[in-house]
Q: What sequence folds into this?
């Protein structure tokens, strides 16, 4: 429930009208990441969630260092034909209906961890970060852990004698 609540907070930050100031959006993102990291800590025995936690930390670092939203450059938006999203925006402005903030490359803290990787496809996730890739890998491991049959370990020690058959 904690993870779903945190993801719901992100959906509200992206899609809900939160006024003209983007401070609530930034705070919701930071708080949602803290809740997601707490969820991972509470579920540490699961290997897939450990991987997801690493991805969350890789995303959380540039988000916090850049004011609460994931930084993206106009150059990277142009690489996937998304410049229309920043029309009328200046550096430091939140990009509507995204988790991103427009920044110049030189002004981005932890640029290598920001949304800078491109996958030019017409459907989904055209611009993403290294943390997003790690999170996706963690989701694959988690789903495999949940849905694939587990291998039973065989007891290779000497058979125990029962009292009925000495």
A:
């Amino acid at each position: 429930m904690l993870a779903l609540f945190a993801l719901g907070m992100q959906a509200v930050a992206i899609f809900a009208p939160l006024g003209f100031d983007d401070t609530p959006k930034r705070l919701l993102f930071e708080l949602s990441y803290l809740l997601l990291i707490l969820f991972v800590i509470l579920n540490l025995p699961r290997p897939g969630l450990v991987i997801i936690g690493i991805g969350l930390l890789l995303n959380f670092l540039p988000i916090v260092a850049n004011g609460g939203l994931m930084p993206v450059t106009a150059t990277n938006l142009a690489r996937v034909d998304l410049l229309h999203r920043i029309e009328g925006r200046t550096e430091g402005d939140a990009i509507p209906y995204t988790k991103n903030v427009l920044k110049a490359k030189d002004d981005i803290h932890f640029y290598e961890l920001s949304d800078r990787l491109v996958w030019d496809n017409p459907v989904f996730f055209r611009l993403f970060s290294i943390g997003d890739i790690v999170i996706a890998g963690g989701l694959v491991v988690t789903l495999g852990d949940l849905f694939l049959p587990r291998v039973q370990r065989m007891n290779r020690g000497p058979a125990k004698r029962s009292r009925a058959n000495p």
